[in-house]
Amino acid sequence: MDTPAVTVIGLGPMGRAMAAAYLERGYAVTVWNRTPARADDLVARGARRAATPAAALEANRLAVVSLTDYDALDAVLEQAGGADLAGRTVANLTSDTPRRAREAARRLAERGAAHITGGVQVPPPLIATPGAATYYSGPAEAVEAHRAALEVLTEVDYLGADPGLAALYYQIGMDMFWTSMLSYLHAQAVARANGISAADFLPRARKTLDLGYFLDFYAPRIDAGDHAGDVDRLTMGAASMAHVVHTAADSGVDTGLPEAVLAAFRRGVEAGHGADSLTRLVEVLGPRE
Ligand code: NDP
Questions:
Q1: How far apart are CA 30 and CA 63, in angstroms?
Q2: Is 151 found in the same domain as 191?
């Protein structure tokens, strides 16, 4: 059987983990990175260094791309302006907006190449470990043709043909992830200001951030437009958030984050929804109908 082959472009922590996973699985791996020295370790382990982005893209049917953002992708594709991309597939695991994913797919299609958008849901150390998953969208036939190679990295969560979909699911995940992480760091700052160590806080923080019960409870109500204030009310949320703001202020900790949450709750109350569940905020925050 032929040795499977893949190109990896972009060797930040994520691209390096991906190239290493392919080497581990016996793939013939071609790599390119703007800063060539980042490839040295992989080359020492058997990867082939391409001299240019064009050579990297032309080396294999599949190129896995992992760059900082789509500005970087544009820069790389511009450098590869003369490359023959017909029939090739770019699995672009770079994160950016759905709009930019759709634009990139259109531009690559003009050059005869398929663009698969990917949104990796795990950090580099979890690449090629059980349970890791990536959102994918784009042409189903391209995803199927390269499924085995994609599954070397993570499970494939295919969402549909629209190239923007994987980026969209990724961004709504990041919306929760970064704000949750900042809420953890903010709470940590209040804890530390009061002499509570991260280790002491850890089991309590894990319990508080285990939000599964709430997500399961509220999702069907949100879809049904049912914002009954039978188990929680926005007025209660606003009062509770005010206590959080005051506790942070009394601890000498920045109050910007809890104040932003309090302001959103108050917007809901001022719009006449104080007796509704906090899920009413989905409508208050969303675009006007
Ligand atoms: P980095 O930003 O550390 O590295 C990405 C790569 O982009 C580097 O190889 C860098 O090259 C290259 N690059 C940046 N600008 C340009 C440019 N103008 N031209 C050419 N190359 C450029 O990112 P990560 O490796 O951490 O992540 C890659 C992608 O994966 C990102 O989109 C990120 O959002 C996503 N992701 C990352 C996760 C993580 O935990 N790290 C988790 C899930 C997704 P150079 O070496 O020359 O600087």
A1: 9
A2: no
Among the candidates 140, 162, 184, a domain finishes at 162
Residue nearest to ligand 1 atom 17, measured at CA: 72
288 confidence band (pLDDT: 50, 70, 90):
confident
* Cα 16 to ligand 1 centre (Å): 10
Distance 12 CA to ligand 1 centre (A): 5
pTM for this prediction:
0.92
User: 154-163 — which CB contacts under 8 Å span 24+ positions?
Assistant: 154/120, 154/121, 154/122, 154/127, 154/128, 155/131, 157/133, 159/135, 161/137, 162/102, 162/137, 163/101, 163/102, 163/104, 163/105, 163/115, 163/116, 163/117, 163/137, 163/138
Tokens encoding 121? 């849901």
User: Is the CB of residue 30 less than 8 Å from the CB of residue 5?
Assistant: yes
Q: How many domains does the structure of the chain reveal?
A: 2
The answer to whether residues 249 and 110 belong to one domain is no
Examine the domain organization and report whether 233 and 96 are in the same domain. no
Task: Please list every protein residue whose CB sits less than 6 Å from any atom of ligand 1.
Answer: 10-15, 33-35, 38, 66-68, 72, 75-76, 93-95, 120, 123-124
Q: Which of 129, 162, 195 is the last residue of a domain?
A: 162
The gap between the terminal CA atoms of the chain, to the nearest Å, is 57
Distance of CA 256 to the CA centre of its chain: 25
Residues 188 and 45 in one domain: no
Q: What is the mean pLDDT of residues 163-179?
A: 97
Mean pLDDT of 56-76: 96
pLDDT per residue as tens digits for the range 120-145? 999 999 999 999 999 999 999 999 99
